Amino acid sequence: MSKQRDQWSSSLGFILAAAGSAVGLGNLWKFPYITWENHGGGFVLVYLVCIAVIGMPIMMAEILIGRRAQASPVPALEKMSKGLPGGKWWSVVGWMGVIAGLVILSFYAVVAGWSISSFINCINWSLNGFDGGQDFGGFVGNGPLQVGLAFVFSTVTAFIVMGGISGGIEKATKVLMPVLLGILVLLVLNSFTLDGASQALAFLFTPSAINSHGLLEALGHSFFTLSLGMGAMITYGSYMGRHDSIVKSSIAIVLLDTLIAIMACIIMFSILFTFPQVRDSMGKSTAGMLFVTLPQMFYTGMPAGKIFAPIFYVLVGFAALSSTISLLEVVVSLLVDKLEWTRIKSTSVAASTIFVFSTFCALSNGAVDFFSGLKPFGQATEGFLFKLNETFFANKAGFMNLFDHMASNWFLPVGGMLITLFVGWILPSRISAEELDLLDENGNPNKFFQVLLFSLRFLAPLAIGYIIMMVILGRDF
Ligand code: PFF
Ligand code: NA
Fold it and tell me: Transmembrane region positions (predicted)?
């Protein structure tokens, strides 16, 4: 029973699609605001180390599992672990990934919806003049609007996923990714003309103190931003051509993702350091940085900003779309491969289920008190239950915040840990070396592979384990 699997039309197609999955709201929306909240430099440094010693190897591990097995995460892990220690149990990684995908997509669709409304606002501001910007609290507190925007975004995602892989996804990313990069470069150049630019760079690159929650957030975000730890790259790898280089593609994807995240910070922080009133008015709603702070630069600090603003939010929307597509694809490909449902049925069922949770997220930023104030272990301000909220959720409240925290900081690192253990210790290294094309002339794994294997066996699992332990013990630095 070997069905011909859909394939990327070229290796560039794979790189762009995987980069499309990686580059998204994680870079443009999330990274700048969590970096701001975690005081810059130290957080950025830990993040970069996580990307290099944990993210990069795990990216290669995931893609190689997918391509070798030619299947989505659950069947892929079943197939690859056959006859090895642990056997079928390794496929729990795939199941966890599907749950993580559901959770992430639920809140991601809400934020993605914000790009639609920012686009509309910008059209209005470009035509009729800038009125000082949007009241972010009022906007996210508007329940029907929030649910509506998330619905529009989820529906578009579902239709594209129904259409299959190589057609839609690949074509769109091929055009949009370079345009997004181009506009970001313009924005960075422009931010260098602002007075706050040097302060922004100093904030970003001067090491600062970081506590254990910050460590976990940097680690979790390195998974989130690279779409790792939940099988998205296993899924995309399964559509990759036999002769394309996994190593080179992974390096390209990781560099591109990191570059874009850093550029987003330079842009955002230059504005914050240039316009103190913007920084003060932002207050606690740092999550609105991409949507509220940035228009300030377009309309008051950039020549021709009027023209770029609406285009930029269209691109943000598309960057988000190429990520939501990959999230939904993880869930859908499982239903197709495991239950043998049709693509249409799988997509409809998955998307509607996710939309229910999206609704809770959409209502949790001020619209409905119950969702906005929700804490998993109750509202206690001291005692054991408080400790649990503190340890596992950094004492965050609100359905969307909790979903985000749970997925990025727990599901993905744990999923990533299992993947790195599987490829590092269980899968015969001959198979990985062969799949990665890292054999020397005698057919033995080469030096580069040894370094990679060291990372997969020791560095990555120990670093993840160490950080999780620090959080559980409540240690600070
Ligand atoms: N990497 C995406 C981003 O940075 O926006 C988010 C994401 C997409 C996470 C796909 C996980 C995933 F499977
Ligand atoms: Na990303």
Answer: 12-31, 43-65, 89-111, 145-167, 179-206, 218-239, 251-275, 311-336, 348-368, 410-428, 448-473
